[in-house]
Amino acid sequence: MTVSPRAEQTVVRIVLWTLTVITVAILVYIIAFVLRKGIPALSWDFLSKNPVDMGKGGGIFSTVVGTIALTAGAILIAAPLGIGTAIYLTEYTWEGPATRVIRFGAECLAGIPSIIFGLFGFILFVTKLKFGWSILSGSLTLAFMILPTIIRTSEEAIKSVPPVYRTVSFSLGSTKWQTVTRVVLPSALPGIMTGVILSVGRSIGETAAVIFTAGSALRLPTSLFSSSRTMSVHFYILAREGISMSNAYGTAAILIIAILGINVLTYYLMNRFIKKYS
Amino acid sequence: MSGVAIEVRGFSQYFGGVRKINALDLDVHRNEILGIIGPARSGKSTFLCALNRLNDLVRGSRHEGTIAVDGRDIYAPDVDVVELRRRLGMVFATPVPLPRSIFENVAFGARRAGVRGRARLEDIVRDSLENGGLWEEVKDRLGTSGQKLSGGQQQRLCLARILAVKPEFILLDEPTSGLDPISTMKIEESLRKLRRDYTIILVTNNTNQAARVADRTAFFLDGELVEAGLTADIFTAPGDKRTDDYLRGRFG
């Protein structure tokens, strides 16, 4: 059977268009569903007050603080490590067995389920190193979890900087370090930031790795060694134990709004940055 | 003042076992424009990149022989490569402005060399752009991106950019190969002026360009120097049949 090119074109277009619509529709449905169920619970008090009675009443302030602390901790640990590794792999060493082993290791790390990271973090940080259920243990665990993403995206971003920029920089009498910091990194920054933002999103949404390592205390954390509950964990516990579905959806709505907000803000900042540097 | 500024003796360059330059002997005189002509892949660009050691950046590069600049072997272990590259500024075949403003492109090398202070940088940028023949065209828009300039302007920006580093030598690798005749003329004009203060090595695939601006000309073929001499002599009475053939367009 032969199909005319025009008919084929039409069929392909309809199929692809349908697939796109389905994808977008699912996304919109999820967001709309969570917001519709969650928004009635939202109020200033919900954001600014600590949970009362296991979360049945009160707000979610301490879990917001916990989420921010854990995520910030994870990024502060993983970003320098990951970006540093990417710089080493791309700029300071030739391609060879060693780089392949490092890259393979990072890839394997990326494929490990988060609950395994949680278990590993529990054994190493919580019990062995005696950090206990704490923001420190949770941040370290999350950092290991997001490290492969940051390495991978940073490496791609650095590789996409035109090699001639480096040659020009060297020919003008830059040292290697000056070339990396003044020429390579500014050009690669949008790509690197994309990886970091992806990681922020993953950290905020992560539940399994965090519940084992940061615990689920509802008190406002006071130090790196305080146990703390994140919004995702709070949502999980509220829903799992049937404590309060309306507060669970309220928490979910805040989570979604926060992640959307971070994405929008990042794109805005990135566009401004790109305009400035090109 | 004259005299030998660069002395190349028995210099060979290899990339991963492949020889690109073979046992080269060549002198570059102070304050001359030395033109280097020859067909593609004759080792002209490789030679330039040996002078400022950009070949070091290529994996598996290796050399034999010596290159002495002002009597000092530039491949000696105690040589500061960063300092060497500041002394031998290079303009590439394709103009590559860095993704930043015109001002910052020109100030780039000076900043890396540790020049600080807005006023000093402004002076350097202005002088360099004037000597590069671009000042009049860009003086009102130094803040716009260097990549928004036309091809010819970009190449003069690249020339100005190395002048800001205050080099002693200017190495040009087919600097006008992608440019229109008017832009080419402007670059050649700048080179004639710069000749007073700098020693210039001009690699060109356009033999007429060598005839127009070079004091002496060297002819490269298959990684070897066929002959070098006063431009007038090379073009009117070449000593080697291969030079004659090349200039008459029989190959290359």
Account of the 3D structure:
- The complex is a heterodimer of chains A (278) and B (252).
- Chain A has 278 residues and is mainly α.
- Chain A is built from eleven helices and two strands.
- In chain A, helix 3 (61-92) runs antiparallel to helix 8 (176-205), helix 5 (114-128) packs across helix 6 (135-159) and helix 8 (176-205) packs antiparallel against helix 11.
- Chain B has ten helices and ten strands.
- Chain B has one domain: 3-Layer(aba) Sandwich (Rossmann fold), CATH 3.40.50.300.
- Chain B is globular and about 55 Å long.
- Helix content of chain B is 36%, strand content 27%.
- Chain B is of the alpha/beta class.
- In chain B, helix 3 packs across helix 4, helix 3 (102-112) runs parallel beside helix 6 and helix 4 packs across helix 6.
- The A-B interface holds A 94, 162, 164-175, 178, 182-183, 186-187, 277-278 and B 52, 54, 57, 59, 82-83, 85-86, 89-90, 92, 94, 96, 98-100, 108-109, 112-113, 145, 147, 161-162, 165.
Order of helices and strands of chain A: HHEEHHHHHHHHH
What's the main sheet of chain B like? 6 strands, mixed
- Secondary structure tally: strands of chain A: 2
- CATH class of chain B equals Alpha Beta
Which class do the helix and strand fractions of chain A yield?
Answer: mainly alpha
Dominant shape of chain A: globular
